[in-house]
């Protein structure tokens, strides 16, 4: 550890001569975060609740009640704030008809509301980050399309956060493309998100990261303790890989591209470890780093699981198709205020009402998202390939990497951590070099990655250092 600290100290000195600051300093991101406001989020959540129910099979004709009115309002809200900011968002409905199935009793139009902020870099714009919330809601019976289902926390909170981030970023410049989505059919089986993920896979869209915000509304747990300084981020890329490879072995002679990629990554893990270093884990670390840097005191708690037990979310169809995907959820849930008919029972009020939402907390989660999305979309792409040199017995570490494919890379940052640490612990800026030897840092004892930086110090996600095949 003493040696590692010595190098870390040297890195701080070197960074003075380096083109990018050691900590990101970007006026664009500061401005985006300032624009996110708890009072506006409150107003949007109350408007969504006022549609009575937003059940996927509820009325679509009324202008005041049901899912049709809700989605028309979401689209108009995004268009209005884009116009106000003279923004670059293109807002549209993406719809398909879902046939009767397990949680759909008649053919039903599933409509996603999607706003796209196109990247401005000719190569970078092919890189896509997607952030979502689901605007459908439910009562106790998942097939009940008539009863009131306010869904203030589940998931008007997520939709209001997505609207807030989209409106704050509408007129900003990013290298990569960001897609803001309010999806439907989550409660009926992740139908809207599944369609987005399926289309992205079919069109070979390069989704570098997807985040669903689902139940991000309350800082007060069912234990009565308020935790307004934490949000959980569910991040697991390993189990979808295992599932895909095992399913392919059982069922099909041929492999799809994700199964092939998953098999290669599992082989790499079998050789050198790194079971917490899938692209999903790297994306989660990058989200945590940016979110905590830009909003000091607000902690992103990484959970290396796909989701909570007995629950799922809109990130799952993305994970299953090989895209890095995460879920933000409040720290301790109160299940009396989710998926419940409005009623009084045993001295408790049940139902997902705005009374149980902490609007300033939603704003903090929205800022965590926005800091991460803005910095990742403004940073260049990570180096395509990073190789850990294991050709000789040595107590040093030598890394080489391919250049980031995008222009205007200000430099590269090598990061490393102990094999049992969830987050990067050390860093050393390499300037524009494409190799680095860390003297006295043994490759046997650490996991390594390389990050690409822009001139403001915005970081890409780390590319994990593998070994040459
Ligand atoms: Zn939900």
UniProtKB/TrEMBL annotation:
InterPro entries: FN3_dom, FN3_sf, Ig-like_fold, M28_fam, Peptidase_M28. Residues 382-469 form the Fibronectin type-III domain. Keywords: Hydrolase, Metalloprotease, Protease, Secreted, Signal. SUPFAM superfamilies: Fibronectin type III, Zn-dependent exopeptidases. Residues 1-24 form the signal peptide. It comes from the Bacteria. It is found in: Secreted. Gene3D superfamilies: Immunoglobulins (2.60.40.10), Zn peptidases (3.40.630.10). The keyword Ion transport does not apply. PANTHER family: METALLOPEPTIDASE M28 FAMILY MEMBER, PEPTIDASE M28 DOMAIN-CONTAINING PROTEIN. This is M28 family metallopeptidase.
């Amino acid at each position: 550890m003493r040696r590692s600290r010595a190098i870390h100290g040297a890195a701080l000195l070197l960074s003075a001569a380096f083109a990018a600051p050691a900590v990101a300093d970007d006026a664009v991101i500061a401005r985006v975060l300032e624009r996110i406001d708890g009072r506006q989020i409150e107003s949007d959540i109350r408007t969504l609740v006022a549609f009575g129910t937003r059940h996927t099979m509820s009325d679509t004709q009324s202008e005041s009640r049901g899912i049709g009115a809700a989605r028309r309002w979401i689209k108009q809200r995004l268009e209005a704030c884009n116009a106000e900011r003279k923004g670059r968002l293109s807002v549209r409905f993406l719809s398909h008809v879902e046939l009767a199935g397990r949680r759909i009793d008649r053919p039903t139009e599933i409509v996603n509301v999607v706003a796209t902020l196109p990247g401005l870099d000719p190569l970078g714009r092919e890189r896509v980050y997607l952030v979502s919330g689901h605007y459908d809601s439910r009562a106790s019976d998942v097939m009940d399309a008539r009863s009131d289902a306010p869904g203030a926390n589940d998931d008007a909170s997520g939709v209001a956060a997505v609207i807030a981030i989209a409106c704050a970023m509408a007129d900003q410049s990013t290298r990569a493309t960001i897609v803001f989505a309010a999806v439907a059919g989550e409660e009926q089986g992740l139908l809207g998100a599944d369609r987005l993920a399926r289309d992205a896979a079919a069109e070979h869209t390069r989704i570098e990261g997807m985040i669903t915000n689902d139940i991000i509304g309350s800082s007060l747990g069912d234990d009565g303790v308020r935790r307004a300084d934490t949000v959980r981020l569910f991040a697991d890329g390993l189990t979808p890989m295992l599932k895909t490879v095992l399913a392919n072995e059982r069922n099909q002679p041929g492999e799809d591209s994700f199964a092939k990629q998953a098999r290669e990554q599992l082989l790499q893990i079998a050789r050198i470890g790194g079971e917490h270093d899938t692209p999903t884990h790297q994306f989660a670390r990058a989200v945590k780093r940016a979110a905590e840097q830009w909003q000091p005191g607000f902690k992103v708690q990484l959970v290396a699981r796909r989701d909570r037990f007995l629950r799922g979310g809109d990130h799952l169809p993305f994970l299953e198709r090989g895209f890095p995907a995460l879920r933000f959820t409040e720290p301790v849930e109160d299940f009396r205020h989710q998926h419940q008919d409005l009623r009084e029972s045993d001295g408790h009020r049940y139902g997902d009402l705005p009374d149980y939402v902490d609007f300033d907390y939603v704003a903090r989660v929205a800022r965590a998202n926005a800091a991460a999305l803005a910095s990742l979309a403004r940073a260049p792409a990570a180096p395509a390939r990073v190789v850990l040199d294991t050709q000789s017995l040595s107590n040093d570490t030598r890394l080489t990497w391919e250049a980031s494919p995008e222009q205007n890379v200000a430099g590269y940052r090598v990061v490393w951590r102990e094999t049992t640490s969830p987050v990067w612990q050390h860093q050393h800026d390499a300037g524009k070099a494409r190799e680095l030897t860390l003297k006295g840092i043994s490759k046997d004892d650490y996991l390594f990655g390389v990050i690409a930086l822009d001139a403001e110090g915005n970081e890409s996600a780390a590319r994990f250092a593998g070994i040459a095949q």
